């Protein structure tokens, strides 16, 4: 499925306003007579919509050699610490002793922190260390070295969060999700890597996909070639993804904050099962545990004391923002569409209490919720996998945001979402059919997929039908792009929360990594109202990228 014209190069700063590229931003309220949209879960791409097998040799040449074939990564920044990650490629079966170093210069003239860590076979020879004693809001460079032999890893670059009470003028995050190796190249990751001004990359899930070769996309072959169900299967799939040079470079240049969605385990997963799992594939509990273990091994996430199955957590970025990352996919989720809607739970009671406590007690200005599935009501789609399928869970969160007689309303709430392979900007209201439309309780920005197939070809009947329905029934939805891959850059300041939406021109073009900053939407502090604006220019003086 094409995302743009091959061979066409666009400037990153050029905001195109033609319907052919901007798509839904100029097409809401379309031709009458189109068929009404159907269940969105059937429109996220299929074998029939997969591109014909194309060039697979963009990174052709000798395969990487040496000990560090999967690169380095960092994640979950705190004001004084950050997770550092690497993996050792070895034919042996014994643990590999490593040293690690952190410095404020890429030449490592002065070492700020160092230590020892082991790449253990029980963790697929991955190594993860919590580097502590660092300075807040500081860019660091890091590297690993094999003790026996002295081979050194590539140099990584990371950045700590500001101190919790620091007054911050600006924060910038790339927000992304849904990177399907089988559907195309990871151009978006390469472009994210080149943005030196980012504080972190927020990845909202579907980092890998579980399908076998040809089952969901056929542009690149999968390893292993079958659907993954065992711990070794999941590990092999992560090895393949992390062999991709674009993804490696994004990890090398920026700290990541990751949560899983469904495809890190199986399609439309929930607490006790998944749409893409049956009895012939063994017990769901065993498959889920294997998927979660591989995720913890391969991602630079700070494992909670409760174990690797808990990914919900909060990260503070000065006085400007608190980032609350949720697990709306597995922990506490009851089965989609089963039983009375108000009896279903999307997150556990414990996680819901944690979310509400952070929203209502933090003194950070922006409360940013990073999570997996659309929070805003979607009257244009029938999809019980989203928060629409769990209305009581959403209502309790909105009630907490609105406050009551004993508690003030929560201001400046921003929801970040992935999963749906399409880009949206919404004002969050509980009932969009109410007249007049009630004031919004939050805003929501939704990222299109890195490479996963969008919902509709540009200008197709499905797109026209959905856009017409949005115009008629969903006044809270301010922007939607159903046709392109991409990501967005979230830019926070004391005055506003701003999202610049970026489209990738063609994920099939082997060497053309062009992207377009297509539109931008922002909400002023205290308003929860979205207005279209210009893409935000990066700040001056960004720290240099790792060499």
How is this structure best summarized?
This protein has helices at residues 19-22, 187-193, 231-241, 245-253, 284-298, 349-361, 391-402, 461-473, and strands at 72-75, 82-87, 96-103, 111-119, 126-131, 139-146, 156-159, 171-176, 200-203, 255-258, 269-270, 273-274, 313-317, 321-325, 366-370, 413-417, 423-428, 442-446, 477-481, 486-492, 496-504, 515-524, 531-533. The protein is of the alpha+beta class.
Can you tag this structure with a few keywords?
disordered N terminus; Immunoglobulin-like; Purple Acid Phosphatase, chain A, domain 2; 8 helices; globular; seven-stranded mixed sheet; 547 residues
Q: What can you see in these coordinates?
A:
The structure is a single chain. The protein is α+β, with helices and mostly antiparallel strands and 547 residues long. It has 2 domains: 19-51 and 161-328 and 340-533, 4-Layer Sandwich (Purple Acid Phosphatase, chain A, domain 2), CATH 3.60.21.70; 78-159, Immunoglobulin-like (Sandwich). The protein is 15% helix and 23% strand. The protein has 8 helices and 23 strands. The chain has helices spanning 19-22, 187-193, 231-241, 245-253, 284-298, 349-361, 391-402, 461-473, and strands spanning 72-75, 82-87, 96-103, 111-119, 126-131, 139-146, 156-159, 171-176, 200-203, 255-258, 269-270, 273-274, 313-317, 321-325, 366-370, 413-417, 423-428, 442-446, 477-481, 486-492, 496-504, 515-524, 531-533. A 10-stranded mixed β-sheet has the order 5-2-1-10-9-8-20-21-22-23. Helix 6 (349-361) runs parallel beside helix 7. The longest helix is centred in the middle third of the chain and has 15 residues, at 284-298. 52% of the residues are buried. Mean pLDDT is 89; it is low at 1-57.
């Amino acid at each position: 499925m094409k995302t743009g014209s091959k061979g066409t190069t666009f400037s990153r700063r050029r905001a195109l306003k033609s319907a052919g590229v901007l798509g839904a931003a100029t097409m809401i309220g379309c031709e009458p007579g189109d068929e009404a949209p159907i269940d969105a879960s059937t429109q996220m791409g299929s074998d029939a919509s997969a591109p014909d097998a194309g060039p697979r040799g963009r990174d052709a040449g000798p395969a990487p050699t040496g000990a560090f074939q999967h690169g380095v990564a960092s994640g979950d920044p705190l004001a004084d610490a950050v997770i550092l990650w690497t993996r050792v490629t070895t034919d042996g079966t014994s643990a590999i002793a490593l040293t690690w170093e952190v410095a404020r210069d890429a030449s490592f003239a002065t070492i700020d922190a160092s230590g020892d860590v082991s790449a253990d076979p029980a963790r697929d020879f991955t190594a993860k260390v919590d580097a502590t004693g660092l300075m807040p809001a500081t860019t660091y460079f890091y590297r690993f070295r094999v003790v026996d032999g002295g081979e050194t890893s590539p140099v990584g670059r990371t950045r700590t969060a500001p101190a919790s009470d620091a007054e911050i003028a600006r924060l910038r995050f790339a927000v992304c999700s849904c990177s399907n190796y089988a559907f195309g190249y990871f151009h978006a990751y390469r472009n994210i890597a080149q943005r030196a001004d980012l504080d972190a990359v927020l990845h909202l899930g579907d980092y890998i996909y579980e399908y076998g070769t040809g089952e969901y996309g056929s542009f690149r072959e999968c390893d292993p070639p079958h659907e993954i169900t065992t711990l070794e299967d999941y590990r092999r799939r992560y090895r393949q993804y992390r062999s991709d040079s674009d993804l490696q470079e994004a990890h090398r240049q920026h700290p990541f904050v990751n949560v899983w969605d469904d495809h890190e385990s199986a399609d439309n997963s929930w607490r006790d099962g998944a749409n893409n799992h049956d009895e012939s594939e063994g017990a769901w509990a065993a498959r889920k545990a294997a998927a979660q273990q591989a995720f913890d091994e391969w991602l630079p996430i700070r494992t909670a004391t409760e174990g690797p199955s808990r990914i919900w957590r909060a990260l503070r970025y000065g006085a400007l923002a608190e980032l609350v990352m949720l697990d709306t996919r597995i922990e506490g989720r009851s089965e989609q569409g089963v039983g009375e809607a108000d009896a279903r739970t999307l997150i556990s009671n414990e996680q819901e209490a944690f979310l509400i406590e952070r929203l209502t007690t933090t003194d950070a200005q922006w409360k940013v919720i990073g999570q997996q599935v659309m929070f805003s009501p979607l009257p244009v789609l029938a999809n019980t996998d989203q928060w629409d399928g769990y209305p009581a869970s959403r209502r309790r969160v909105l009630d907490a945001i609105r406050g009551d007689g004993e508690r003030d309303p929560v201001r400046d709430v921003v929801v970040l979402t992935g999963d749906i392979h399409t880009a949206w900007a919404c004002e969050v209201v509980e009932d969009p059919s109410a007249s007049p439309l009630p004031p919004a309780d939050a805003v929501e920005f939704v990222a299109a997929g890195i490479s996963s197939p969008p919902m509709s070809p540009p200008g197709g009947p499905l797109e026209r039908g959905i856009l017409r329905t949005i115009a008629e029934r969903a006044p809270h939805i301010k922007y939607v792009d159903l046709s392109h891959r991409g990501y967005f850059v979230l830019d926070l300041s004391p005055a506003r929360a701003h999202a610049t939406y970026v489209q990738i021109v063609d994920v099939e073009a082997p060497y053309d990594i062009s992207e377009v900053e297509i539109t931008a939407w922002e909400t002023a502090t205290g308003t929860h109202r979205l207005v279209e604006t210009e893409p935000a220019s990066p700040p001056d003086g960004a720290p240099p990228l790792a060499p």
